C-alpha cells in the first residue's frame, strides 16, 4: 500500500504550515497576505518545520480545485478520444464543450490554486537558505534541506508550466509577498516564464534524491522527465496574443533540451513498464505505489470523508455503476465510438480503457451494444470494480492522479528523436515499440479469449438478467454478456473484455439472476497472440508518418489521463481532430452527440480566458485572451 505523504498526521501538519504561508483573499487573487512578524521570526526554525512548509506546496495539487477534478478530469475534454456527457450550465460541461467564459468560476478556482502553490513555493525557496541549519548544519541536515528547496523549486516550475499551458502569458512572480509590495502583476511573455521554469526544474534535479520514492514526492529522475515534457510544450504550438497558433523559431533547442533530459533518465534506467497494462490502473485504484511505472503523481488521502484532500478519480470518470455491490458513481466522461474503432482488436488497452457496459446493483456488467447505447461508453481504467470500495471512498476517492507514467516518457523519446533526426531512428522505434508490445501483452504468459454461444436454451425473458461467468484458465478480466434473446433463448452474446493471461481455456457458465430460463451454454477459446512483428510499428516510416503514429499511440496509451487536449494543442491539430471526429460519429448516426464541433472556435479555444474575478481586481492585466 502507498506510504502517502498526506496521511492523517501529515495532513494536519501541512494544514498548520499552510496557515503560516501566504493566504489568498477570496476576491483579490494576487493580493496576498504576507507573513506575520511572529511567523517570519519563528517558523523555519528546524528541518521539521521546513518539511511541513514543503508539504504545504504539494498540498495545492491535492484538491478538487486542481488535480482531484478540474485540471485532471474536466480540462482534458472534449477531444477526439473523450467528451463530457450532456448539455447544461454546469462549469464542467460548459468548459468541456468550449462554452466557458471569463466568469466561469472553475477557471478562477484553478487559477487560484496554481498561484497558491506558487506563493507557497516562493516562501520556502526564500526561507530555507536563511535557516541556520542550511549553512551550519551537519551534512545530513544540509542534504535534507536542499531536498526541500529542490522540491519547492520543482513545484513552482510545474505550477507555472500549467498556468502557461492553460492561459499562455500570465502574471509572473518569483518573490514571496511582503507588506507594501505591488501584488497586481501584468502579463509576462510565456517564453520568459519558460526560461525560469527550466531554471527551476534544472536546479531542482541537482539536489533531489536519486532513489525511487516510497511516497508521492518528486525525485531527480521525475524532475528531469517532467522538464522534458515542459520543453516539448515550450517548443510546441500555442495561441499567441495576436490570435495565431505558432511555435518559437528556436523550437528545436527545446527538443534538444528534452532529448538531453530523457537521455539522462534512460542512462540510469530507474523505470520499467509493468508487463500488464491493466495492472497499472488496478494498482492505482488499490493505492499500491508503483514508482517504476508512475513517475510523478498527486497524492490523495481524505480520512474525514469530506471534500478536503479529495479526488473524484473513479467516481466522475468510470463506467456507470448502480449502488449496491459497489458504490455508485456519476460517470461523466464519455468515449466516442470512433476512438474504440481505431484500436487493433488484439490491443489489450481497448477493452480495458473503454467501458462498453454499465454495472448494476448486483455488480454485473450490462452491455451497451445495441441501438444508440454506444453514445454511453465511458472511460474504464478506474472502474469501481478495481477500487477498495471502502466507506471513506464511496464519493471522494483516495486514488492518486498520475501526471506522468513511464510509457509517456518513452513516447516523448520517440517523438523527440523523430523531430531532431528528421525521421525515426533506432531509438525512436525501440521506444514506441516498447509501449506497443506491452499493449499486446508481449511479456505476459497466455493470451486473450473469445466466447462462442453453443446452445440457446429457453425460457429467458430479459437479456439483462442473463449472466455469463468466466472462471479459471489462469487469466483475468475477460467478460462477456448476452446482447439479445430470441423466442426465449439466448440469441447473441458479445465480448466486453477479452482479458489477458489465459493459459488454458476457462469455463463459461450462463445463469439467470431472476430464475427465468435455462439451458444456454457457451464455450471459450484462446486467441492467438500477435507476433512481435505484428505488435511493432512498421519499419520505414518517414518523419511525418512516424509523428502521426506517435500521436495515435499517445491516444491509445494515455487516454483519459489528462493530456490529450494539451497534446493536440501543442501539435496544432486540436481543431482538425474535432472536425475529423465529428465526421466519424455522423457516419455512425446523424444524431450522435458531439457538441464540441458546434462550439469550438480556432484561434480562441486553444487557451482559456483570464478569470474575470482576477481581471476585475488586477488592472495590469490589460487584455483578454483572443476572441473572449
UniProtKB/TrEMBL annotation:
Official protein name in the record: RagB/SusD family nutrient uptake outer membrane protein
InterPro entries: SusD-like_N, SusD_RagB_dom, TPR-like_helical_dom_sf
Pfam families noted in UniProt: SusD-like_3, SusD_RagB
Annotated family: Belongs to the SusD family.
Positions of the RagB/SusD domain: 338-447, 533-628
Residue ranges of domain SusD-like N-terminal in the record: 94-232
Keyword Signal part of the UniProt annotation: yes
Membrane is among the record's keywords: yes
Subcellular location: Cell outer membrane
Primary residence: membrane
Endpoints of the signal sequence: 1-25
Source organism (scientific name): Flavobacterium lipolyticum
Keywords: Cell outer membrane, Membrane, Signal
Amino acid at each position: 500500500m502507498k506510504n502517502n505523504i498526506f496521511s492523517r498526521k501529515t495532513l494536519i501538519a501541512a494544514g498548520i504550515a499552510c496557515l503560516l504561508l501566504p493566504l489568498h483573499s477570496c476576491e483579490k487573487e494576487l493580493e496576498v497576505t504576507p507573513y506575520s512578524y511572529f511567523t517570519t521570526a519563528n517558523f523555519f526554525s528546524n528541518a521539521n518545520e521546513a518539511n511541513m512548509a514543503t508539504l504545504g506546496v504539494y498540498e495545492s495539487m491535492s484538491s478538487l480545485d486542481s488535480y482531484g477534478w478540474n485540471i485532471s478530469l474536466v480540462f482534458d475534454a472534449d477531444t477526439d478520444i473523450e467528451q463530457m456527457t450532456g448539455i447544461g450550465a454546469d462549469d464542467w460541461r460548459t468548459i468541456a464543450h468550449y462554452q466557458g467564459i471569463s466568469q466561469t468560476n472553475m477557471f478562477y478556482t484553478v487559477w487560484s490554486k496554481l498561484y497558491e502553490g506558487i506563493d507557497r513555493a516562493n516562501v520556502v525557496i526564500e526561507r530555507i537558505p536563511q535557516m541556520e541549519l542550511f549553512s551550519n548544519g551537519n551534512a545530513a541536515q544540509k542534504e535534507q534541506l536542499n531536498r526541500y528547496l529542490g522540491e519547492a523549486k520543482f513545484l513552482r516550475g510545474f505550477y507555472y508550466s500549467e498556468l502557461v499551458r492553460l492561459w499562455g502569458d500570465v502574471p509572473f512572480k518569483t518573490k514571496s509577498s511582503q507588506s507594501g509590495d505591488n501584488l497586481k502583476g501584468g502579463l509576462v511573455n510565456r517564453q520568459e516564464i519558460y526560461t525560469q521554469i527550466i531554471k527551476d526544474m534544472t536546479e531542482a534535479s541537482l539536489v533531489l534524491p536519486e532513489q525511487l520514492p516510497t511516497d508521492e514526492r518528486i525525485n531527480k529522475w521525475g524532475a528531469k522527465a517532467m522538464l522534458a515534457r515542459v520543453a516539448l510544450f515550450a517548443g510546441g504550438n500555442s495561441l499567441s496574443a495576436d490570435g495565431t497558433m505558432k511555435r518559437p523559431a528556436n523550437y528545436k533547442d527545446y527538443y534538444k533540451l528534452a532529448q538531453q533530459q530523457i537521455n539522462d533518465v534512460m542512462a540510469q534506467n530507474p523505470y520499467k513498464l509493468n508487463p500488464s497494462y491493466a495492472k497499472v490502473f488496478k494498482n492505482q485504484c488499490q493505492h499500491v505505489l508503483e514508482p517504476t511505472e508512475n513517475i510523478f503523481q498527486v497524492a490523495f488521502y481524505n480520512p474525514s470523508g469530506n471534500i478536503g484532500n479529495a479526488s473524484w478519480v473513479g467516481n466522475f470518470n468510470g463506467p456507470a455503476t448502480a449502488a449496491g455491490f459497489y458504490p455508485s458513481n456519476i460517470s461523466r466522461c464519455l468515449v466516442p465510438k470512433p476512438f474504440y474503432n481505431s484500436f487493433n482488436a488484439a490491443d489489450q488497452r481497448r477493452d480495458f480503457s473503454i467501458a462498453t457496459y454499465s454495472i448494476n446493483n448486483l455488480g454485473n456488467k450490462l452491455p451497451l451494444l445495441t441501438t444508440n447505447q454506444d453514445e454511453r461508453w465511458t472511460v474504464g481504467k478506474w472502474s469501481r470494480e478495481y477500487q477498495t470500495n471502502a466507506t471513506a471512498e464511496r464519493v471522494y476517492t483516495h486514488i492518486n492522479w498520475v501526471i506522468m507514467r513511464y510509457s509517456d516518457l518513452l513516447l516523448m523519446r520517440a517523438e523527440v528523436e523523430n523531430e531532431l533526426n528528421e525521421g525515426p531512428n533506432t531509438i525512436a522505434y525501440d521506444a514506441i515499440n516498447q509501449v506497443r508490445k506491452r499493449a499486446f501483452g508481449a511479456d505476459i504468459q497466455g493470451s486473450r479469449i473469445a466466447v462462442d454461444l453453443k446452445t440457446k436454451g429457453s425460457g429467458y425473458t430479459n437479456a439483462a438478467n442473463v449472466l455469463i461467468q468466466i472462471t479459471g484458465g489462469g487469466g483475468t478480466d475477460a467478460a462477456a454478456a448476452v446482447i439479445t434473446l430470441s423466442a426465449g433463448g439466448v440469441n447473441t452474446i458479445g465480448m466486453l473484455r477479452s482479458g489477458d493471461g489465459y493459459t488454458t481455456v476457462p469455463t463459461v457458465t450462463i445463469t439467470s439472476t431472476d430464475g427465468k430460463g435455462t439451458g444456454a451454454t457457451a464455450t471459450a477459446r484462446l486467441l492467438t497472440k500477435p507476433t512481435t512483428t505484428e505488435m511493432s510499428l512498421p519499419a520505414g516510416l518517414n518523419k511525418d508518418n512516424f509523428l502521426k503514429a506517435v500521436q495515435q499511440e499517445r491516444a491509445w496509451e494515455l487516454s483519459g489521463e489528462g493530456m490529450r487536449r494539451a497534446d493536440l494543442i501543442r501539435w496544432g491539430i486540436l481543431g482538425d481532430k474535432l472536425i475529423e471526429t465529428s465526421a466519424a460519429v455522423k457516419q455512425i448516426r446523424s444524431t450522435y452527440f458531439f457538441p464540441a464541433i458546434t462550439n469550438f472556435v480556432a484561434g480562441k479555444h486553444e487557451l482559456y480566458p483570464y478569470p474575470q474575478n482576477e481581471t476585475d481586481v488586477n488592472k495590469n492585466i490589460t487584455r483578454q485572451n483572443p476572441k473572449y
